[in-house]
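call fold(seq) -> tokens
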Amino acid sequence: MINYNVDPEIQIFIDEYLKISNNLSTDTSIAQQRQSYEKICQHFCYPHPEGITSDDALVDGRHGKISIRRYYFQQPAPNQPQIIFLHGGGFILGSLDSHDDICAELCAATGFNTISIDYRLSPEFYHPVHLDDVTDAYLQVTNKRSIMVGVSAGATLSAALCHRLKNSSQLPLAQVLIYPGLGGDLFNLESYQVNAQAPLLTTDDIHFYRKSRCLKDPLPLDDAEFYPLAARDFGGLPATVAFSADIDPLRDDASFYVEQINKAGGNAKVYNEAGLIHDYLRARHTSQKAADSFRRIGEAISESGSGIRQH
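ret:
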């Protein structure tokens, strides 16, 4: 087994994660993966910060009703931006509950009311249904000062939404992408090779999630709405901040995406977090490195909210 330079506190988290999930693996059935993932989410879930309230609602979408969860800061300042949050889970896992505490803590850390979107999952639904759900819900809840925050697959969808809407007056104010999968070349980007057997997410896992997301063969890897790095034009995108985990096959997606936006004259930056792995946000209360990154994420969201887009 490869000896990755994992932060010691993160290694404790990994061991606990694998024990609780019974070694969550893409080699098992979707039903088993969902059951294991639910155990993980429940185990690493923390109470909402004091003063944060939430409620659930339904909005209309072209594929049917879409569930959302709204988080309220106790005394938000007037004309505050809002966070639109998209959970991770490889397009087959995750829900409003899987990242509930993360949403509540981001709401508290920034003072921005937050809306989480429960987009439909594969294999019950395939691309582009996930993005359609996100688009339909977003257009109904945005206040034109919305900051997209996506985690893993949710970051893929956040970037895809921004590409879909980049010529629209409804374009988000900014996006913050957390260990995003953006369609990097699995054979040429270094991180897919050196981190091929990384803890909690391997390159083989990414192959599995890609295939699970879409019925088309071959996959539409040249479609920016499937993978944003396939875009021919990176101009016109909102301010972007990406966070990658150094020990993650997806690491180089973030830096390459930021590079393309900046080459097109945009405003983007990347933070690569040393010693951390995919899904490290769940360790933010037990690992100082994860806690520091979570603080930086909150600061990036807050700073993004200071911009005002002109129409």
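The longest helix spans residues 288-304.
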